[in-house]
Specification:
Layout lengths: L2 H7 L1 H14 L6 H8 L28 E6 L8 E7 L2 E7 L16 H6 L9 E5 L8 E4 L2 H17 L6 E4 L8 H12 L3 E3 L7 H10 L11 E2 L4 E2 L6 E5 L3 H4 L1 H14 L2 E5 L12 E3 L6 H14 L5 H7 E2 L1 H11 L3 H8 L3 H13 L3 E5 L1 H4 L4 H14 L10 E3 L29 H9 L7 E4 L3 H4 L3 H10 L2 E6 L11 E4 L8 E6 L3 E5 L12 H15 L6 H4 L9 H11 L8 H6 L4 E2 L18 H10 L15 E2 L3 H8 L20 E11 L7 E10 L10 E6 L14 H7 L3 E4 L1 H6 L7 E6 L2 E9 L7 E5 L9 H4 L28 E7 L1
Parallel strand pairs: 6-7, 6-16, 10-11, 10-14, 11-12, 13-22, 14-15, 16-17, 17-18, 25-29, 26-28
Antiparallel strand pairs: 1-2, 2-3, 4-5, 4-18, 8-9, 19-20, 20-21, 23-24, 25-30, 26-29, 27-28, 27-30
Keywords: 4Fe-4S, Iron, Iron-sulfur, Metal-binding, Oxidoreductase, Signal
InterPro entries: Asp_de-COase-like_dom_sf, MoPterin_dinucl-bd_dom, Mopterin_OxRdtase, Mopterin_OxRdtase_4Fe-4S_dom, TAT_signal
Protein name: Molybdopterin-dependent oxidoreductase
């Protein structure tokens, strides 16, 4: 690579360049003063992209790599390829992929932090078992054991519970950090064991968007793609003329794909509107920032729909040909009185602004909607997402390049399929209500039955709401297996601890770009200590179970978990051969590409699908490969059309208290008196997740507002900055160095009322408990709202390196009672609170 080329793709230049461009382009009025102050004389100025015009790394005998390996960053859904430079088997540098037009050679600050997971003195290096101390306490004592002993202990416990008729008392909860396909192996093990409680990360993350997409269009996936569609040779999302962002801060959560949209916007002049209660770096790039009251996005969208429908701004031809339920929607909006004026009273967004937003979206085509956790983490998440699918459908912005409903994190092609199980498996009971937050309820109350043993691949003591109750539950849990990289908070509650490999220590696929794109990644370095990839652990556990099972012959387990699957190339080939519409995604093809390949992709000659539901031969071929019943269908619903309302949808959703045509409701701790939700004690079959139970609900009761007499503010949680990705980056040097303090964003007027100054140590209290942080006065947030970063925790030992505080989980403040009873999403985006100086 030339010196000039390296300057363009080096992580050093890219990180600084992103910082400079963010400071220089401030579209929102509230940022003008901050930007002007930052550039005033006497302030630090933006530094050059490099400290010298010469690159002295080139031709350095010590720093020239002897090998470059193609891996991938696993810290967000931008799916950046990392070209990892090795010298004598050690990582010496990490660069981006210059030949991927979406990545454009760059990555954000987190890319090199992948290395800090490998070379980290806090890594777990061997299996351990509890030998003393109370669960959850820092005095817990563990001693190293062999893998054989660890897996034997786990298998013995699971079989003992099964033989006692308690297979359903065993549960697993996966995590987004898992290598793709591990969840399929976990599900296979649980089927052989007879437990229904194999759950995934979705209810903590972003399941609701995928659920809504599936119910309206047929597939639960991000609808459009970044870059050129290989089937049509046309630009997809980069061709959007209108970008509507709701509850997504992509500058910090998806920086590389967001940068791609911004580069495209220079050419298209697309309008960017960001809807968020606080001004984020994403909002700073917008033409318009709109700040509704937290947890009221559903009202805003209903008001937009009303204006579009009643003013004939919809695409009549598309609706007539492809949409079922439009007339029912129109009548529902009118009879409910969901006018922009009504929405304005609920959201605090002026009616005139709602009308203008609706008109701009409806009249500009193609228009793309983007959403993320800001919508998912609401108790009305499924219904809000459904209304957003209606918005795209009635304006004809579905199944076209540059449009769609791009609800983030619904990236993988459903469950990666394995061959049919050999032998007869036990029957299963119905699963507990969807979402790991119900684990604590089951353990403590025993309703509808009690969990006895849990395995996790995440960190429930930080991820779950109502942390104090979760702590209580895991202290009394009979048997807990923690798998992870570090001694996170949850590890102190474990009976068995299993060390896993980081992304650079395994060959696998990284299937996390939101547009269904998949990359092959090579192994960079050998596993640290005795750590194992997660899929190895489940294969080995099956073989350990085979040795101890008195009910089934050894081949019951061994034949269903062949040793050959430990070679990920063999395992991936098995997935490709058995998963619908994946026949073209072979390891060889993925390895040869500099750009990722998008699913569905049924044959090696198929280009992959960028725009779902596109009226094009490549889509119809892929759709029929997904299911023979889809032959000739454009949309993969039972009718082959977009389904807003059908009697069947209505009947199914009514079983759990909902409707195919959502009515507005919100969290009872939103300021004001609004329709809200009541949870009954009745457990019914979940219509969205029929393998599980859920609480039945009643909608429409008006909230009293009493809680705000003592707790006058609304709190929202989220990612602290672009430096962090959930809790794992808190175990890196860069993460703790750059953002090791929990900075709570408070409007200056709210801070003044509480006697708080910028930089003060503060206490945030809710009816559930209290946490500490540092006040960050920020005019770019609603006066009635504070933002409290999540994923700080009391076990993050990297704080020792920098003298930063140890913090309790923000989820102490969250009430676990309030969740979306369809998707399982927890309501992290609103809680009543107050602040005071510490």
């Amino acid at each position: 690579m030339t010196s000039k080329g390296r300057k363009k793709t080096s992580r050093r230049g890219f990180i600084q360049g992103v910082a400079i461009s963010t400071a220089a382009v401030g579209a929102a009025e509230l940022l003008k003063k901050e930007v002007a102050d930052a550039a005033s004389p006497g302030q630090d100025q933006a530094i050059p992209l490099q400290s010298t015009e010469f690159d002295f790394i080139q031709k350095s005998a010590a720093l020239e790599p002897d090998k470059i390996i193609d891996s991938a960053c696993q810290f967000c859904n931008s799916l950046c390829r990392l070209k990892v430079h090795l010298k004598d088997g050690r990582i010496i540098d990490v660069l981006g992929e210059p030949n991927d037009p979406v990545q454009a050679g760059g990555f954000c600050i987190k890319g090199p932090m992948m290395t800090q997971l490998v070379y980290n003195r806090f890594r777990l290096k061997s299996p351990m078992k509890r030998v003393g101390g109370n669960k959850g306490d820092s005095n817990s004592k563990f001693e190293p054991i062999s893998w054989d002993e660890a897996l034997s202990i786990i298998a013995s416990k699971f079989l003992a519970l099964r033989d006692a008729g308690l297979a359903r008392a065993i549960a697993n909860k996966t995590s987004g950090r898992l290598p793709r396909g591990t969840g399929s192996l976990v599900g296979r093990y649980f089927s052989l064991l007879g437990s229904p409680n194999n759950t995934d990360v979705g209810p903590v993350c972003n399941d609701a968007g995928g659920n809504a997409l599936a119910w309206t269009f047929g597939l639960g996936n991000f609808t459009n793609g970044y870059g050129i569609d290989d089937a049509t040779k046309k630009e997809d999302l980069g061709s959007a003329k209108f970008l509507l962002f709701l509850g997504t801060n992509q500058a910090e959560t998806h920086p590389v794909t967001f940068a791609y949209l911004l580069r495209s916007r220079v050419q298209t002049k697309a309008k960017l509107v960001v809807i968020d209660p606080r001004l984020t770096p994403t909002g700073a790039q917008a033409d318009e920032w709109i700040a509704p009251k937290p947890h009221t996005d559903l009202a805003l969208v209903l008001g937009m729909l009303y204006h579009i429908v009643t003013n004939n701004l919809y695409d009549a031809a598309f609706v007539k040909k492809w949409v079922l339920g439009f007339d029912e929607l129109k009548n529902h909006l009118k009879s409910s009185g969901y006018t922009p004026e009504w929405a304005a009273k609920v959201t605090d967004v002026p009616a005139s602004k709602i009308r203008l937003l609706a008109e701009a979206y409806a009249k500009t085509k193609p228009a793309a909607i983007f959403c993320n956790a800001g919508i998912s983490h609401q108790l009305g998440a499924f219904d809000t997402y459904r209304c957003l699918t209606f918005l795209a459908a009635i304006t004809g912005n579905i199944g076209i390049p540059g449009g769609g409903c791009n609800f983030m994190h619904n990236t993988w092609p459903g469950e990666l399929k394995l061959p049919a199980i050999i032998g007869k498996t036990p029957s299963k009971d119905i699963a507990l209500p969807v979402g790991p937050d119900y684990f604590a309820e089951s353990i403590i109350s025993g309703e509808p039955y009690q969990l006895k043993a849990i395995v996790t691949q995440g960190n429930p003591l930080l991820a779950c709401s109502d942390t104090i109750k979760v702590q209580q539950a895991y202290r009394q849990l009979e048997f807990y297996v923690y798998t992870g990289l570090f001694m996170e908070e949850s590890a102190y509650y474990a009976d068995i601890i299993l060390p896993v490999t980081s992304g650079f220590e395994m060959e696998t696929v990284y299937m996390r770009r939101d547009d269904r794109a998949i990359r092959w990644q090579e192994q960079v370095v050998t596993p640290v200590g005795e750590s194992k990839p997660d899929w190895h652990i489940w294969i080995d556990l099956a073989h350990a179970t085979a040795k101890l099972d008195k009910r089934n012959p050894p081949e019951y387990w061994r034949d269903n978990f062949p040793d050959s699957w430990k070679d990920y190339r063999h395992l991936w080939a098995t997935f490709v051969a058995n998963t619908p519409a994946m026949g073209g995604m072979t390891q060889q093809r993925l390895s040869q590409r500099t750009e990722p390949l998008r699913w569905p992709c049924p044959t090696v000659d198929h280009p992959g699908v960028s725009t779902l539901y596109l009226d094009h031969a490549s889509w119809y071929e892929a759709a029929s490969a997904l299911n023979p019943d889809n032959i000739g269908k454009r949309f993969l619903t039972p009718s082959g059309k977009v389904e807003i309302y059908t009697p069947q949808l209505q009947s199914r959703l009514a079983e759990a208290g909902h409707s195919a045509l959502p009515s507005f409701y919100t969290h009872p701790e939103v300021i004001g008196k609004h329709p809200t939700i009541e949870y009954t004690s009745e457990l019914v079959k979940n219509p969205v997740n029929p393998q599980a139970l859920t609480q039945n609900i009643k909608l429409g009761k008006i909230s009293s507002g009493k809680v705000h007499k003592q707790y006058p503010l609304m709190g929202i949680t989220g990612r602290s900055s672009v430096v962090h990705f959930h809790s794992v980056t808190h175990w890196t040097y860069t993460g703790k160095q750059m953002n090791g303090v929990r900075l709570v964003q408070i409007h200056p007027e709210a801070a003044k009322k509480a006697g708080i100054k910028n930089g003060d140590e503060i206490i945030v209290e809710s009816p559930r408990g209290a946490i500490t942080g540092t006040a960050l006065l920020w005019s770019g947030i609603r006066e009635d709202t504070i933002f409290v970063p999540g994923w700080f925790g009391p076990g993050q030992k990297m704080a020792e390196e920098f003298g930063t505080p140890y913090y309790e989980s923000v989820n102490i403040l969250i009430d676990k009672q309030y969740y979306d009873n369809l998707s399982g999403q927890q309501a992290f985006k609103c809680f009543a609170c107050r602040v005071k100086k510490a």
